[in-house]
Write a structure and sequence with these properties.
By secondary structure, the protein is an alpha/beta fold. About 40% of the residues lie in helices and about 10% in strands. The two termini are about 35 Å apart.
Length: about 375
């Protein structure tokens, strides 16, 4: 069904309700190329085929061309394999697994298609497979909460029953470095989500009535109207440099931390604005317009061989060069290949290379020390 609002857009709309109208005015260019999104679609297609029993193993899709024309490489297949293994591990407990099935959340208004969800007894598990490199949190993930809202509605679970339903919202994101690992989980009792459901319903109502305003934030990164948005322009402008005197200003640690947080936000706003302007300029050049300051140059990935492995090894042997890689695969690759994560974790070693200053937030604390 073609709902006016998709669950996948909830995080952006809750952060900036006005973006719904703005993106309708400034949609993605017809010839826009989003390689990351295309790769994600291809990886999801391969993973779904395995979970539906139409293919034996995600690693067997290396070199396979998906329906959108993207050819899967080893990295994408390893990511899909980790997601598949996490789903299969929980689904093996029993119950019913649903893969790529559309869910209506608010009739005729909001809906979407979860990557996978599982129901067994009093527990509901929902997955969102992310193949990109920008970290996504499981805690307070609006997309997963939207799917949960629709699943509870589909199952007929009301406000009297949801206090007995356990929920596990899971993000599987193998290609992003995250302090909590590649698989992140947020667990709680379903009645704890009522407040989130109210926010979702209120946001959708305001969006459709065009009562929302624009507001900048991390959600701007995925907005097609970011280059035309007044709020984004002002936020980026606030990050531009100022000229002052050479006098020294005493700086206490608390003041330094406060200013550092402001600068982090300013950098994020500038990155968002830069991304939008890059899209505008690139589209103009692709359309044939010449812009003095910029040109389009081809971008190349890592070198790879153009012949099958066996042919390559035969050629190397004939020339006296051993082209086989004799180094052990990585722990992540071992899990993707079928080795038990419990076994891998007993012999895995990750040496600290130093310390990195990160902002403490509710997401980190809740996931480390327990959400409920």
């Amino acid at each position: 069904m073609n709902w006016p609002i998709r669950v996948s857009n909830l995080a952006q709309l809750i952060g900036c309700g006005g973006s719904w109208v703005m993106q309708a005015i400034h949609p993605e260019a017809p010839d826009a190329i989003n390689q990351a999104a295309a790769e994600g679609t291809a990886a999801h297609e391969a993973a779904a085929l395995v979970l539906k029993g139409e293919a034996p193993d995600a690693m067997g899709f290396i070199g396979w061309t998906a329906s959108n024309g993207v050819q899967l490489d080893r990295s994408l297949c390893e990511a899909a394999a980790m997601y598949v293994r996490d789903v299969q591990r929980i689904a093996a407990e029993g119950g019913t697994l649903h893969v790529e099935e559309s869910i209506e959340v608010i009739p005729d208004v909001l809906g979407g298609t979860p990557d996978a969800w599982h129901h067994f007894g009093s527990k509901i598990t929902i997955w969102d497979f992310k193949s990109g490199h920008n970290s996504v949190e499981a805690y307070e993930n609006w997309q997963l909460l939207g799917y949960l809202m629709g699943i509870l509605r589909k199952m007929g679970i009301n406000g009297l029953q949801d206090g007995f339903i356990r929920v596990d919202l899971r993000i599987v994101q193998p290609r992003a470095r995250h302090r909590l690992g590649s698989v992140r989980s947020w667990t709680f009792v379903a009645d704890a989500a009522r407040g989130y459901f109210n926010v979702i319903a209120d946001t959708c109502s305001k969006v459709l009535l065009a009562e929302s305003t624009t507001r900048t934030g991390s959600h701007c990164l995925y907005c097609s109207a970011r280059a035309n948005c007044e709020a984004a322009t002002k936020a980026a402008g606030a990050a531009l440099e100022f000229i002052g005197s050479t006098s020294s200003i005493p700086l206490e640690p608390e003041a330094a931390a406060y200013e550092l947080e402001l600068l982090e936000r300013a950098i994020e706003a500038a990155k968002t604005r830069r991304g939008g302007l890059l899209e505008v300029v690139e589209h103009s050049i692709r359309s044939g317009k010449q812009i003095a300051q910029f040109v389009l140059e081809p971008k190349y990935g890592r070198d790879s061989w153009s012949v099958p492995d066996e042919n390559l090894f035969i050629m190397g042997d004939a020339l006296g060069v051993d082209l086989r890689n004799t180094k052990p695969i990585t722990p992540t690759q071992a899990i993707a290949a079928g080795m038990s994560p419990d076994v891998v974790n007993t012999i895995r070693d990750r040496k600290a290379s130093g310390f990195e200053l990160v902002r403490a937030d509710a997401s980190t604390a809740k996931q480390i020390f327990g959400s409920n």
